Amino acid sequence: MPDTDGLIVCGETLVDVLPAGVGLWRSVPGGGPYNTAITAAKLGTRTALLTQVSRDAFGRQCVETLARAGVDESLVMHQDVPTTLAVADIDERGVAQYQFYWQGTANDVVPQSFPDPVRPPAAIWAGSIASVLWPAREALRAWIAEHYPDTPLTFDVNVRPTLIADRQTYAERIAPWLSIAEVARASTDDLAFLYPGTSIEGAVEGWFGDYPRIDIALITCGQAGSLAFRRGDSSPLRLPAHEVTVIDTVGAGDTYTGTFLDGFYQRRLDLPEALRRAAVASALTCTRPGAQPPDAAELANELRRTAS
């Protein structure tokens, strides 16, 4: 296998519509894949985003934000339909719930073709809404398998029950992705929706039993931190949450995953250190409104501060 470098992130781009005061709203480019790609790029990893973006004003805003973050746009597919919107309702704990406007938008069309591949990356990320709702989700999986058969895949479950309420349908649609993943990530809320009444340990054991390619399962637990299960280990690695004053949690999980990918696959850090960086970066995102992941200097400063 040739030397590899960087990341490819695959999935939806949309615009988050966030409350900004009484009767006021603001639009922020987002989506799990979009935020993950921006996180990794801001940390210094060469990152390409395979996504579908509208040519409307919101879409142009999304592309401009990608460019400022240093994300490679060569895999962006442009569409002549409106931008997908996600209207956020943020509770008193800063946790967001979303209402999506998906049908007839840039994420609800079949592209004429997928872009020509870029050079082999160190890792590929896929998941979130695109993995279960893109009309071309099977074609995306085939594109990855054809061009990057030896590249490790991280699959991020990121359940959105407001789009697919039936858990059986959800489970069936994520299964093909889990079958090709080396790393699987989910939140405790994701697991509770998919596997009601099953413990975290039970759900992860099920993954390891059903999907032999999964080597690592990452479970984010909100204020309780995160857990990392590695195939063959007798107990998980437990990471405490990095304590901050939370403004909201928009983009926190995406920042966690993007930082993990940057650390584990690009910087070749060991698993505990890659996860510690991910927890700190995720916490920093929670200190400001919307998905605003830290850059490399900000993360390094916070890591030094916590180590002293």
Automatic annotation (TrEMBL):
InterPro entries: PfkB_Carbo_kinase (IPR050306), PfkB_dom (IPR011611), Ribokinase-like (IPR029056). PANTHER family: HEXOKINASE FAMILY MEMBER, PSEUDOURIDINE KINASE-RELATED. It comes from the Bacteria. This is 5-dehydro-2-deoxygluconokinase. It is an enzyme of class 2 (transferase). The gene is iolC. Its EC number is 2.7.1.92. SUPFAM superfamilies: Ribokinase-like (SSF53613).
